[in-house]
Amino acid sequence: MGAVPSSIKLNEKMSTHEQYINDAVREMVEGYFAVVKSNVADQVPKAITLLMITKLREDVYARLVRKLYSERSVEELLADHHKLLSNEAPPRR
Question: Which GO terms describe its molecular function (predicted)?
Answer without folding.
Answer: GTP binding; GTPase activity
